[in-house]
Amino acid sequence: MNETVMRRLAKPMLFAAAFIWGSSFFIMKGAVDVIPIFYLLAIRFTGGAALLALFCARRWKTFTRDYLWRGAIIGGLLFLAYAVQTFGLAETTPSKNAFLTAVYCVIVPFLYWLIAKQRPDRYNILAAVLCVSGVGLVSLTDALVITRGDALTLCCAVFYAGHIVAVAKVSPKKDIYLLTVFQFAWAAAYAWICGLLFQDFPPAAVLLNADMLIQMGYLITMATTVALLFQNVGQVWSDPASAAVILSLESVFGVLCSVLFYYDPVTPRLVAGFALIFVAVVCSETKFSFLQKRPQTAAKCSLKKKS
């Protein structure tokens, strides 16, 4: 596909990735309850790597050795993000896990500052204040204590931010499809190593259960292979700000699916916190530019009427 077509497809791909991930939170919650987390991720990323490797069969002729270290970096960050997020999901609700994960969109500009020496602007700072306020409403209990699950989810947001920055750094001039294969393969390798070291392998009866096979099939095919490929391709063919704000909609879809299908309770305080986090993400990534255009449009219309 040519560059024009890919740029047109980039944002729909990012929207699709956000929706798929949002719908996967309550599915992951069911799988986490019965399968040890490292093995869950190992199976998920192994399946994703195998599927995408077959899909990219004709692209292997472009392979060079640097794909190995590039894949190791972004695969490592992806594994850390997913592992910490999944441990957090095991100890909090799917809706809170979804929205707290979206904090990574606010972290990206500050992380990029450390790497590229580009200072955050006033909108980034305002977004950080709004985000911290929202996190407080969502996470703090009546005793003003953040639960372990919420704290882990916030940590995962840092790794997700690092992953976005790393993909932007290592993907230029590389086949993003092939690079994603190595990202999955390395993430799977890290997960298998941690599983063998720290957890017991789940019994076959659990893995071969019909409901679990359906859940794992969705996580491997849609939430891993399709969604992460869409994210990587979408990032390459769109600007980082647009990509981040579109991907942040994952949290909105996550809450909606958790409430509709997981019957996750939503209180007024949580709604207020979710709203602040979402406004923070929009502020950080759009700088409210969509609001600034309206007066100009109105002024142009009035001038046309006068003429």
Note the main attributes of this structure.
307 residues; single chain
Summary, kept brief:
The protein is 80% helix and 0% strand.
Give a description of the structure.
This protein has 307 residues and is an all-alpha fold. It has one domain. The chain contains 14 helices and no strands. It has helices at residues 3-32, 37-55, 66-89, 94-101, 104-116, 122-139, 148-170, 176-198, 204-207, 210-236, 240-247, 249-261, 268-286, 289-306. Helix 3 packs across helix 8 (176-198), helix 6 runs antiparallel to helix 13 (268-286) and helix 11 packs antiparallel against helix 13.
Mean pLDDT figure: 81
Query: In percent, how much strand structure appears in the residues?
Result: under 5%
Distance between the termini: 45 Å
H-E order = HHHHHHHHHHHHHH
Q: How would you sum up the major sheet? A: none
User: How many domain regions?
Assistant: 1
Tally of individual helices: 14
Number of strands: 0
C-alpha Rg (nearest Å): 20 Å
Q: Structural class, please? A: mainly alpha
Mass-distribution shape: globular
The quaternary state of the protein chains shown equals single chain
Low-confidence stretches: 297-303
Helix content: over 70%
Write the SSE topology.
Elements: H1 3-32, H2 37-55, H3 66-89, H4 94-101, H5 104-116, H6 122-139, H7 148-170, H8 176-198, H9 204-207, H10 210-236, H11 240-247, H12 249-261, H13 268-286, H14 289-306
Helix pairs in contact: 1-4, 1-10, 1-11, 1-12, 2-8, 2-10, 3-7, 3-8, 4-7, 4-12, 5-6, 5-7, 6-13, 11-13
